[in-house]
Design goal:
Blueprint (H helix, E strand, L loop, with lengths): L1 H37 L4 H9 L2 H18 L2
Helix pairs in contact: 1-2, 1-3
């Protein structure tokens, strides 16, 4: 039973991390586009703000790999 739960839990971790990243980037992207329309000099800040949520997806991937390696899958 636990052998089946290991890949499912790893997939669930990746799915939640990817959905959270997508949601955050959609909000930041819309706000960043509006900010760039008014003040083009904030382009660097907008790019950095869009890149920050990507760490959630990367950390989710790392946790999923750790689950797979620890679970013996």
């Amino acid at each position: 039973m636990t052998v089946l739960l290991v890949p499912i839990s790893a997939a669930l971790v990746m799915a939640v991390a990817a959905i959270a990243t997508a949601w955050a980037q959609s909000r930041i992207g819309a706000a960043g586009a509006a900010a760039l329309a008014e003040k083009p000099e904030v382009a660097t800040t907008v790019v950095i703000m869009i890149a920050i949520p990507e760490t959630v997806a990367i950390l989710g991937f790392v946790v999923a790999i750790m689950i797979l390696l620890r679970g013996g899958a």
